[in-house]
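Example complex used in Figure S2.
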Amino acid sequence: MTTRHKLRIIPLGGLGEIGKNMMAIEYADDIIVIDAGMMFPEDDMLGVDLLIPDLTYLLEHKDKVRGIVITHGHEDHIGALPYILPQIDVPIYATKLTQGLISVKLKEQRSLIKAKLKQIQPGVRFQVGNFKVEAFPVCHSIPDAVGLIIYTPVGIIVNSGDFKIDYTPVDGRPTDLSKLAQLGNEGVLLLMADSTYSELPGYTPSEKVVEDKLDHIIGSAPGRVIIATFSSLVSRIQMVINSAARHKRRVFIVGRSMRDTVKMAMEQGYLTAPPNVLCNVEDLKKYSHKETILVTTGSQGEPTSALVRIANRDHSEIRILHGDTVVISATPIPGNEALINRTIDNLFRQGANVIYGERSQVHVHGHGSQEELKMLITLVKPKFFAPIHGEYRHLVIHANLARGLGMPENHVFVLENGNILELDAEKGKINGRLPYGNVYVDGLVMGSMANVILRDRKLLSRDGIVVVIVAIDKKEGKLVGRPDIVSRGFVDFEHDGSIIEQGRELVASTLGGGHHTDYTSIQSRVKETLSKFFYEQTKRRPMIITTAIEV
Amino acid sequence: MTTRHKLRIIPLGGLGEIGKNMMAIEYADDIIVIDAGMMFPEDDMLGVDLLIPDLTYLLEHKDKVRGIVITHGHEDHIGALPYILPQIDVPIYATKLTQGLISVKLKEQRSLIKAKLKQIQPGVRFQVGNFKVEAFPVCHSIPDAVGLIIYTPVGIIVNSGDFKIDYTPVDGRPTDLSKLAQLGNEGVLLLMADSTYSELPGYTPSEKVVEDKLDHIIGSAPGRVIIATFSSLVSRIQMVINSAARHKRRVFIVGRSMRDTVKMAMEQGYLTAPPNVLCNVEDLKKYSHKETILVTTGSQGEPTSALVRIANRDHSEIRILHGDTVVISATPIPGNEALINRTIDNLFRQGANVIYGERSQVHVHGHGSQEELKMLITLVKPKFFAPIHGEYRHLVIHANLARGLGMPENHVFVLENGNILELDAEKGKINGRLPYGNVYVDGLVMGSMANVILRDRKLLSRDGIVVVIVAIDKKEGKLVGRPDIVSRGFVDFEHDGSIIEQGRELVASTLGGGHHTDYTSIQSRVKETLSKFFYEQTKRRPMIITTAIEV
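Predicted assembly (1102 residues):
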């Protein structure tokens, strides 16, 4: 087959991770977008609420964008939609549960756009521009997750989405290995696969391991069992319900977001419960401790979550009692470790027995380990390979796995966000990189936030701010009255108020007697004098701003 | 033996961790202090440099404090000395290397106190007030670490210090198990032991494992080897020197703090090198890549460290080349994960092969795992047990290990910092808790920092600050001129300057025409109006401060 155009693959979103939150696939006049996720800000992005992928490239080629295909309903794959749709209003293709989660998301954000949501079924091809797309089921830590097969004029692309291989998933929908094997025999041009856990040797354990462990804990706990997990981990909640029914316990869902998700998942049929197993929290007191299980959010130590309030004796209805067993059925998202550990410590302090951590096997993660990654490559037998979804080191390790399976060096591409991978049927190359930046969302203001704002916030957070106000006589250019000083986050007025008073005197004597016409010079003289004085007195360097008023 | 007084054990320092940084042991008119370490601030302690233990109790009983005994030379055991000695000037007892590190520390801080440093030898008893003390060697991730045997009128206390059991330590000084067994047979009243790794089953691997692994890497690396580790990990540096000599490579120490420690350790005899193995970085170019090893700091991703500058192509002399092997011979200190991962990613980007992580066995930690903890308890056979050095959950797990070995429930004490454990020969109980707070060190200002400062810094870091300056006519109480607004960290003046201008207009129209005598009312009206306006416009809530000047 000869093709006039090159196929272009562009990872567009991810903070550290590559191609995680958004990718574009382009051929001739058509662009298809995969996922539209948000990212959480890093520690030094002070006051930033969230980040979304840089849309510049898509906006520049807006007339080519034919649709957004979503692989699953996690925030890092759907969370940017409310911000993107007002700018790029194209159809969104997603499976049923994912669609439900997108609707909830858009409603939360009061998005005014009437999103064009199209429901897709695994195994049923649909057309997006000049691409044919088919979803295939994969296992991940949320139901209804899919990988994508994209039929392009140059060849077939397989994108794994977030995936692991689980022969005994709770929802009975294992990753479709025969479909992948069949494709492999037909010939796949490019495989793009999840590298999140490429550092881990071996296989990721099945959810069955967790099911057995949870069932054992629930069956043998001397009193109440409190299980904290992600609200999107519907299969984990299903396990708890099943186990509760077996051990004649009632399940109480604690916390609004957990209740909302459970309600939606029940309505859509992704969660089922025998009669009388799910109960209202108001009825908790009607049952003995041995008869109850509480399911709650807070597995990441989120300060406002039910579990954290319980751990801090701050919850209006639930107090930890001796004999309670608390299970943290989740792994820490990087950066949350300290919050989670503090919560576990406080639960122990209240007298609970807390079961947590990888060794306790009460959680398995949702991504494939090295042997699964090798299996995927081996089944799909792609001509070209591009590891995605992971930080740079994960991609390098995944690429090395592919090379270890015999793939030629120049058929394996380690990309960065913004890189343009160009492919024809015979060869591929990385052809440049878009000027790339994530977009901050801070309040309503969107756009790559001016670095000066973040820099100022960082300075403010270190040693606070001192604002000096001086009044200058319009005619004479002389200082009028005593300079005023306002400060925040610098010193404690009760104990160190005299430092501020001395600062005022110092400004008065620095500017007193002078004839001032140049405000810049006033500013720099005040700053110099006060910086020195404050540093000597406190070893702190607050931001110093002087404003002069003409009177 | 009858004793009139009770023995009191008080853990005094630790952020999360209990008894880690300072403990007090008190009998009648004598207090002995163990360790005097600093703590690093948590994420929400903005602008705080470091924390030291709360000294209130010791200052209130200053005339009773007889001495400070230091177990080893890590920052979290010696780092508070420069702040404590000016207030409590008592003798400091430490082994040779620890003493050297304390001297370096006091010199760095330009401490004016002439510290009374007393060198101690393991196995040689010394008197501190009415206590006899004897140090015994333990293995930890720094040489010359000791545990303490404290002979009190009530009985013998054993404090493990930070320890692990390593039969093949690099310095040939294993933990003195026979001494502990002998004590156990004589009868120990109380064991206090390191709980840092009580979550880990099994044994902590020996440094020998790391030695073999590093030797293999150094022997087979195709080019340069760059090894990042802690400068205090003298034994690790010794391994590298030994291996370099075997493989005919030269060792170059990169970075000032690493060079200082190596120099001190060589002078004191804790580090030895065959002739011509250690070379100056200036001579690096004289050798082929296969002949060189670089040892550097930066294993925690510290932004100004040599390794991070190398990873960012920001180092004046060293660039990563294809064929370089970088070894991260350290585990992340909790909270540093993101910085380290970013460094590893950047090293891969520069083309290095990076060897890192627990599975690669290029680092083992310095604390005992569960089997070692059980061994210690079994050998020492204490009457009472108090786990220390760890967060609350670690103490609970360690206490459960002791109970599992048959210790009676009421002989095992899980303490909090500030708890007073009172013991006589027959029984013990936790008798209350001191009002406890860590002391912040922020610049020169020490003392429990006013919470309002930290709260303000947090607010400032989120959405910045807006300062409104209005001039009010002294006689008429009328607004004079246009109100002025200064802001930082709130909006970008280039793009959003008009919001500030509109804010000025709004303040003018709010206050214009009025007769103002009450400044509090001016402040609250301005704040109310502007908060609402700014939130509508930006969804941000900057701190708003109004200052009124009489003219």
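The domain at 207-360 of chain A is CATH 3.40.50.10710 (Rossmann fold). Residues 519-538 of chain A form the longest helix (20 residues).
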